[in-house]
Fold this protein.
Amino acid sequence: MSLLSLEAVQARLGRAIVLDGVSLSVEAGEVVALCGPNGAGKSSAIRAAVGLLEMTGGQIRLGGADITDLSPRQRAQCVAYLPQERRIAWNLPAVEVAALGAPFLSGADALSRARAALGEVGAGHLADRGVAEMSGGERARVLLARALVIDAPLLLADEPIAGLDPDAQRLVLERLRARADDGAGVLVSLHDLTLAATVADRIVVLDRGRVVADAPPIQALSPAVLREVFGLDGAWIEGPNGPLLAARRAQ
Ligand SMILES: Nc1ncnc2c1ncn2[C@@H]1O[C@H](COP(=O)(O)OP(=O)(O)OP(=O)(O)O)[C@@H](O)[C@H]1O
C-alpha cells in the first residue's frame, strides 16, 4: 500500500486548470522529487495531497484512506508538511515555532523534540532567537524543523532548500533522505535538477499540470524532457558524488 497516491487528480485555481489528471505515488522508504518549471503545478500537487487544494476530479489516498474521509486531525497525524510560504506572523523563539509541528504532544515533550529537530537542520544555536530577527535562510531551517519535529510516516516538502546556502541545501536533503531511509515516504519539490537526481529514488516531472515523466532520475530527466519541459540542452555526466547535469539553454 502506498503512503500517498494521487489518481487522475484534477484541480482548478480560478479559471485555470492547475492539475490535469495527475497520478503519482509515494512508498515507504523512498524520496520522490517533484520537478518542473515555474507554474507547472508542483505546489498545487503538494497542497492537494494534504487536502489544502480542493480537487475537481480524481482521488487522493493517504495511508490507504480516501483523503475526503479523514478529518484535519487525522491528516495532520499522518503527514508533515513544509509549505513554500515562509512567513511567520509572530516573533516567537525558534524552538516554540518548531514545537508547533507537534500539536498532539505535551508542551515539554514538543519543546524537547523541537530542540532536537533544530539541531538536526543545523539550527540548534537559533533555538532561543525570535524568528522575526532571522535571515530568510535561518527562518527556512526553523520551518523545516517544524516539519521534522514528529516522525510522520509521510513528509511533503515544498522547495525546502530555496534560499539556503550550498552546505545547508545538502544538509536538508541529507535529513530528508535519512527520514526515508528510516522508513518514511518523502515527496519534495526541487528546482535544482542535479540535487534532485542526487537525493531522489524517482523524479516526477510536471509540466502545465500534467505528469510527463515518472522514473528514476536520469531516465525521468532525459534529454528530450530536459529540452521540451525545461528548455535545456543537457547531458548527465558521472561526478565524484553522483550524477551532474551539464546544461545550457536550448538554442
Ligand atoms: N491563487 C491563484 N489563482 C489562480 N491561479 C493560480 C493561483 N496560484 C497559482 N496559480 C497558477 O497555478 C499554476 C500552478 O501553480 P503552482 O504554484 O502549483 O506551480 P509551481 O510548479 O509550484 O510553481 P513554482 O515553481 O513557481 O513555485 C500556475 O500557472 C499559477 O499561475
Summary: The longest strand covers residues 16-26.
